[in-house]
Amino acid sequence: MAHLNDPQLIRRLLTTPGRWAVVGLSGNPLRPAVGVSLYLQQHLGQEIIPVSLKGDDVHGAKGYKALAEVPGTIDVVDCFVNSTRVGDVVDQAIAEGAKAVWLQLGVIDEDAAQRAQAAGLDVVMNTCPKIEAAKLGL
């Protein structure tokens, strides 16, 4: 069965202050993760935690090379990775006790979404927080 996003869940995730680990957020200003994470941080008041292969610091936030390195609780794992790689990121989010996973626009993995839901995580898939915030007038 195809995953359907819950508008109330999206509103809650975007309006409740939390710690968002943004996987795929590097110092490359040409990547969409840079602008979206800045929006999350500056307009929605979310704490962002950059996670990338190099562990770049971004927007004044300390970067990490893996979710397992991030200290403390992770509320949302925002996935800016290819659909073929996102299943591994979702499995790491489950292992690290994240509360939710957000698969960005164009990132689709139904099996990973089902695994996350079965583990008790909230799931949003194939959309962008910036787009959803605009729809909600945030």
**Helix proportion of residues, in percent?**
25-40%
Give the radius of gyration: 13 Å
Q: What is the overall number of helices?
A: 5
Q: What is the name of the CATH superfamily?
A: NAD(P)-binding Rossmann-like Domain
Strand order of the largest sheet: 2-1-3-4-5
Instruction: Give me the CATH architecture, please.
Output: 3-Layer(aba) Sandwich
Beta content: 15-25%
Explain this structure.
This protein has 138 residues and is of the alpha/beta class. The protein has one domain (7-136): NAD(P)-binding Rossmann-like Domain (Rossmann fold, 3-Layer(aba) Sandwich). The protein contains 5 helices and 5 strands; from the N terminus they run αβαββαβαβα. It has a 5-stranded parallel beta sheet with strand order 2-1-3-4-5, sandwiched between helices. The protein is globular. The mean pLDDT is 95.
In short:
This protein is of the alpha/beta class. It contains five helices and five strands. Helix 3 (83-95) packs parallel to helix 4 (110-118).
Output the keywords.
globular; 16% strand; 138 residues; single chain; Rossmann fold; alpha/beta; 5 helices
Reconstruct the topology from this structure.
Elements: H1 7-15, E1 19-23, H2 32-42, E2 47-51, E3 76-79, H3 83-95, E4 100-103, H4 110-118, E5 122-125, H5 129-136
Parallel strand pairs: 1-2, 1-3, 3-4, 4-5
